[in-house]
Amino acid sequence: MKLLRELMFPLIAVIAAFIVGGILILIIGDDPIVAYKLLIGSALSWPDGIGYTLFYATPLIFTGLAVLVAFRCGLLNIGAEGQLYVAAFATAWVGITFVHMSAWLLLPLCFLAAIIAGGAWGAIPGVLKARFGSHEVINTIMLNFIAVALVSYFTQYHYKTPGDPIMETTEIGGGAHIARMGKFLPGFPERIPLNLAFILALVCCVLVYLFLWRTKWGYELRATGSNPTAAEYGGISIRKQIIIAMTISGSLAGMVGINEVLGYRYRYYDGFSASYGFTGIAVALLGRNHPVGVLLSAILFGMLIRGGIFVDAFTNNVTKDLVDVLQGVVILFVAAEALFRGPFGRFGLLKRSKV
Amino acid sequence: MLELRNITKRFGDVLANDNVNIVVKPGTIHAIVGENGAGKSTAMRIAYGFYKADSGEIIVDGQARQINSPHDAIALGIGMVHQHFMLVSTMTVAENIVLGAEPGSEIALDLHKATTDIQGLSEEFKLAVNPHAVIEHLSVGQQQRVELLKALYRHARVLILDEPTAVLTPQEVDEFFAILRGMRQQGKTVVIITHKLSEVLAISDEVTVMRDGRVVGQVATKDTNAAELARMMVGREVLLRVEKPDADVGTAELSVKNLSVSTSNGTKRVNDVSFEVRKGEILGIAGVEGNGQTELIEALAGLILAAHLTGAIRLEGRDITRVNARARRELGIAHIPEDRHRRGLLLDFSLAENSILGVHYRKPVVSTAGVFLDDQAIRKRAAQIIEDFDVRPTNQELPARALSGGNQQKLIIGREFELHPKLLLVSQPTRGVDIGAIEFIHRKLVALRDAGCAVLLVSAELEEVTALADRLLIIHEGRIVGDVDPKVATIEQIGLLMAGGH
Lengths: 355, 502
Description:
The complex is a heterodimer. By secondary structure, chain A is mainly alpha-helical. Chain A contains 15 helices and no strands.
């Protein structure tokens, strides 16, 4: 029952977005039914559709979780984008620098590099907020610019293969590669880049859930997000929680680097992120800041990205910008939930204070 | 003058007003009393057009009227002063009063005429308000009179006042009542919503008692008394006095020496305060709100940065001035905060989760591994508190937000009592709590004292501190200005000290 209630509003938002999108498609001069059939059909076909959908969903699960953890502490991490860039570069750097190291050592090192780099980049705005009270939204946005510029610089001037016209580093050592799912799933071709990072993302969903709702640390983090003054009263250090939350958030965002570098391109490719960090905000919002919701909404967004390519190719007028429209409208409706709930919420409040 | 006839109002599945009938006669002061949630504010907000009744009618001057908004109410001569003032603090009295009813043409504001009008009204009703004064420079009592002027300026003939005395000192209350009597003399009608029985008896001509959304009686004030009104409000006999044996006082538990608390801009909110709280006694601190009580309690609870403190706080002789909140709790200090929504509760968390705030990191609620919360232990603890402190509803999965104020307060009190504290800091323990729960909370506090706990009680309710405290300090502008025996001192004496006089 509770789950159903939780699912209702996101579901309404998604359906509403599809209706609005359908009207748009009509205006543009295509058949919405055909377009949507194409969208969903190509996103769920076996094995390519599902494979690519989940592959696109993987970074969004990480960034969605990153936003969720910060949000549960009352923080808005708009910096997942910067955190994942720094982390992806760091993990590639380790893979390049220790190119001949054996997998047993190199792989853990590369994982750690991504997690620590992302965490450190996330911790900066955390520390700034805890120490000086400067707002994390501004600082994370600023750090995005710095991160993007920094990794571009290093790619361009220090780690590019000489003569390569593409902005990408040299390849990482073979020991740092993680297996693609094709290795384990019969009938699932290895050319599909879905890799073990997806499993890692699922594990992270579980871990984030356990951490937030089953440990004392999670309690403190959520208490801080729910009511910082009451948390303080309960003997919780708000400053510490802010730093912890931002660090964990950054680490989760950083794991995007594992999917991208260790599981997909085997090198750092500049500008690889299709705004994963920002879409993560939408994913967390649609997923009601719960790991299960994040997983579901990341998969939905993965479907949209995958299906969008086919809608673009096989309809006359609709382009894959439709996906952006759908995403935008979903978020609009999710954000408007407050509006839907407003009157109910008000009655709820009155009901409580008057009885 | 004003009559509510068969008013019914639902909020969701809650019947806030059930067939309410109230007749307010012209030229009288009419009190509406009831516990929190009895529906008195709802009824009056319907009369003022804030809410629309589901059924029933409002009669003004003998005619049924549609009141769809406060605008309609004002046009019919009904004014309302809310518990929380609605004033722009950086604007002058005159500017505030004309706000929304600006005189002059569409473009030019004729403040001059307004000022003269306000001056006249102020003199007529002896309000002594200077139209040119800026709101933020006025005392709370004066601000309230500005609110009255606002209604009078809009030609209100009926003034509805929602809990008007909550923010006033006893002396200010007396002045305020004098003003109300003056208004009655001038032919105005006053409706006063309150839950303080002494005020009802002091000021009103007639009183309507509400309970559970229904009117349980409308009587002439001269024909009733406090005990009868309390019985009508609660529906059973109520002990209005706190029964307590003499204190069996032990050694000093808490000793505060020359404590000062400054804000970050350097203003001293607590100024060179020294006192002791001994085992087995309740030390009361009386004062008008905002005179440093909040900062004093928070400093003692460890919620104010040590950098903002000077002086020493000792618990059983040990200096704890620089000890943090968590460690202070471990040393045996429990704290019932004045603002339960701000400090005391995680409103979106369940009752179970709220019941462990402050002990959430240690045994027994954390499992042996020291990391995972032990669900069963938490549930057991919550169930214990809910049972011992009669928290309703008893479903511990409900968010704290879903509870009434009284039950939220009982949950907090239960949680803090469960610590078996040596020292209890308690602030406004019964604010917004209904009479039945007040009685319960008072008995619990006395029981804790009798068990040897040192209790420091801050309350803005003078009746409450004088009834509970064994010794009473009076605080004014951050200083302790009086130390009296509550059994001997009169309300007038205490009130005078609270106001800063001697």
